Please model this.
Amino acid sequence: MTLCLGRYLKPDTYCANLDDLDFPAFFEDGYRLVLLDVDNTLARHGSFAADEYARRAIDRAQQAGLACRIVSNAGKKRIHAYAATLGLPYVAWARKPSTRGIREACRIESIEPEATIMIGDQILTDIVSAHRAGCLAVLVRPRYNQEALHVRLKRFFERIVLAAYKLKTGKQRRKKRS
Model:
């Protein structure tokens, strides 16, 4: 048996930031739930409160008819505080790339993973867990350059993956649910 890691590493969509995402198109394509990572996707690592960028993204998704939930590897105390500033439910200690957090969020929302979008900034956690769970995997560029050493090491590998797939940010690719 051969292990094909490649299918887990390539995002379905790669965008510069959350403002580039067409949430109404996702809804039109049959998606109903958006799961969002926090650190360097919505906010600076360690943030306890949402900023205007995060609020705008959540508002746009919800106005398109999509339910939103935070799925983060960060601890419960901080994610509880952060999610409260957005009025969103959350799953903390998600352990991505495990599918546990994504599956828990889908179960609570009563929405199948196939109708779910996972949005994050890291291939090795957010994108891999999205694919493993059966979700649409959306990669956004990290919002900030200041990161912990272990994240910077992962970013080196991620640059190789992005180059191998010749991925550049740009227009959102449409992938309708089957």
Notes: DSSP finds seven helices and six strands in the chain. The longest strand covers residues 67-71. The beta strands are 13-15, 33-36, 67-71, 90-91, 116-120, 136-140.
